[in-house]
Design goal:
heterodimer, A: mainly alpha, two-stranded antiparallel sheet, 13 helices, 78% helix, globular, B: mainly alpha, 10 helices
């Protein structure tokens, strides 16, 4: 073999081996999370771990029920979607079908900018702006499901806007023109001819936003109050799965630490399900 | 005056449903832009007055809460993470686009795992990094554990942008190069990579933005020690790679959760914001230049 051929074959091998990096990473993540989380779940008992309403690791005997945190994550995520989805989708429609080119050049970078703000800065903003606002308006403490939902709703906006926009743009122009030719107005054509054709892409956008909201950590910690108890109302504080890990991981020992890792496992499974449905939807969108 | 008159005239002719939809679409967009302006404006307005020189003092003390050490750590962390992730990301993209056959089953598996990695929240990365790098490999809270964790986190981003960039090279370039007798490697290094470089670069810069803004993945991997790790002695306790180091985002978290230095926290948030927004804008302009060419 010529030295050049040796180099070709060698580099082919190198490229192939590096390509396995992502597979190895996913395997490692799964192995280490599950191997440290599942024994803890076994010891606590799956039922009393997932559905237990009491989280008091310092008591004796301690109880490790993460049901309040599961509900906390779900409530906050639902609230974020309630705010972020309509605003996001309408903004996407505006960008794709309503806005003049000059305006687009301003609005689109604004949305991208919103995506670039670090979550810790969002959290800081929420802590010093949204929480005091709720405190003065409702005369409560302020750190609450509502505060976290508003903040996360803003945070997931860029995700929803950009994916919805591209799926609306992917609908063939003939749908719009056909509706116009039949006498429908601009708005009617966009919302009743183009929009339904883009719905699986828009659904995918919502699911991705859901994934971001449920996994968000630092911003939520700073505005949600973090009380490990059953959610008691929109204006009351609550703790999410993500917050539970960050707040106690620093000092947790033995079973307590295992329970926190198991909290991560539950979150991981949630996220995997969300991602799988996202890729399934995306694939359907393409075909 | 005439513009608003035009809008009024446009509105008057509409049916009620159309009018409602028209208003909703515009209201939503105004809200989106409003949120953006409000958040940025708030941080800029509150942070600017406190951008004092003491904030950039060489050493952190609990009095000056200097952000300088964290800034240096952020740069180190970014370089280390890129050093690990960029070769892997680009090589994987090269393999997927230039070498692997479409029907190859491994390609499908790599796609799925990459998508999975891209969707994992950063706290899970932090948890994994803690379990694997910090505890299992016994690296402790360290620069190295943090940068490996971040490298895995940005891998899918670099891979995907490199893949797109390579795919955008016209096939005629490859055919021309092969036709002149160049081998695969030469085609790659002389034709494909130079053409794809702006796209790859914009992905890398986007990854830098993610690293700089990341906090949840770092608290339990790189720790929160507010000083610049030094020491080049090749023994594990003293070598700088094995020392804890907080980045700017983690510093920001520490400041705001302590709650003693709210004004300095505003200024730190401003610095962080300017950094991340600047990095993202840079990536945007490179990508834009690239699509125009």
């Amino acid at each position: 073999m010529k030295p050049n051929d040796v180099k070709e074959v060698m580099m082919h091998g190198v490229f192939m081996i590096t390509a396995f990096a992502s597979i190895i990473a996913v395997l490692l993540i799964c192995v280490f999370l599950f191997a440290s989380g599942i024994p803890a779940i076994k010891e606590i008992g799956l039922g009393s771990f997932l559905l237990g309403k009491e989280w008091s690791p310092a008591d004796s005997p301690p109880s490790f029920g993460i049901f309040p945190m599961i509900l906390g994550s779900l409530y906050i995520t639902a609230g974020a979607l309630l705010l972020g989805v309509p605003i996001g989708i309408f903004t996407a429609v505006f960008l794709a079908k309503f806005c003049p080119k000059q305006v687009y050049k301003i609005v689109k970078p604004c949305v991208d900018l919103l995506a670039g703000i670090p979550s810790i800065v969002y959290g800081f903003f929420g802590m010093l702006m949204i929480v005091p606002l709720i405190r003065t308006v409702f005369k409560v403490n302020g750190s609450s499901i509502l505060a976290a939902s508003i903040l996360l709703g803003i945070m997931i906006l860029p995700t929803i806007v950009s994916i919805s926009e591209s799926s609306i743009r992917a609908v063939p122009e003939s749908y719009y023109e056909g509706a116009l030719a039949l006498g429908a107005s601009h708005e009617h054509s966009v919302f009743f001819a183009v929009f339904p054709a883009a719905r699986s892409g828009i659904l995918a956008a919502v699911i991705l936003g859901l994934g971001r909201a449920i996994g968000e950590t630092m911003a939520v910690i700073m505005v949600a109050g973090n009380q490990a108890r059953m959610p008691a109302g929109v204006l009351k504080g609550v703790r999410t799965l993500t917050a539970n890990i960050v707040l106690e991981m620093g000092y947790a020992q033995d079973l307590h630490r295992g329970a926190l890792i198991a909290t991560g496992v539950v979150l991981f499974v949630f996220v995997l399900i969300i991602n799988l449905s996202f890729s399934a939807l995306k694939r359907r969108n393409i075909s | 005056m005439s513009a608003s008159w035009n809008i009024l005239k446009k509105l008057r002719g509409k049916k009620p449903l159309d009018l409602v939809l028209f208003l909703l679409v515009h209201l939503a967009s105004v809200l989106t832009i409003g949120f953006m302006l409000f958040i940025i404006g708030y941080i800029v307005a509150k942070g600017t007055p406190y951008l004092k020189p003491s904030l950039f003092a060489l050493k952190y003390t609990s009095d000056n809460v200097s952000l300088f050490p964290s800034l240096v750590n952020t740069v180190t962390m970014t370089l280390l993470s890129l050093l690990i992730a960029v070769p892997f990301g680009i090589f994987t993209a090269i393999y997927l686009v230039e070498y692997a056959k479409r029907s190859n089953k491994i390609v499908g598996v790599i796609r799925v795992t990459t998508e999975t990695l891209a969707g994992i929240p950063s706290i899970i990365y932090g948890l994994f990094g803690f379990l694997f790098f910090v505890v299992y490999l016994k690296w402790g809270y360290s620069l190295l554990a943090g940068s490996f964790t971040l490298a895995i986190m940005i891998l899918p981003l670099i891979m995907r942008t490199s893949e797109e960039a390579l795919k955008s090279v016209p096939d005629s370039f490859r055919e021309g190069s092969f036709g002149l007798g160049a081998g695969r490697l030469r085609t790659l290094s002389k034709i494909l990579l130079p053409y794809a470089m702006p796209g790859i670069l914009s992905g890398v810069i986007l990854a830098i933005g993610r690293i700089v803004g990341e906090s949840a993945a770092l608290i339990f991997t790189a720790g929160t020690l507010a000083r610049i790790p030094t020491g080049l002695v090749p023994n594990k306790e003293q070598f700088f790679l094995f020392q804890s180091a907080r980045t700017l985002s983690v510093h920001m978290y520490a400041l705001s959760s302590e709650g003693f230095h709210v004004n300095e926290a505003y200024a730190t948030a401003l610095v962080l914001l300017v950094l991340v927004v600047g990095i993202n804008a840079l990536s945007f302009f490179i990508a834009k230049k690239f699509t125009r060419a």
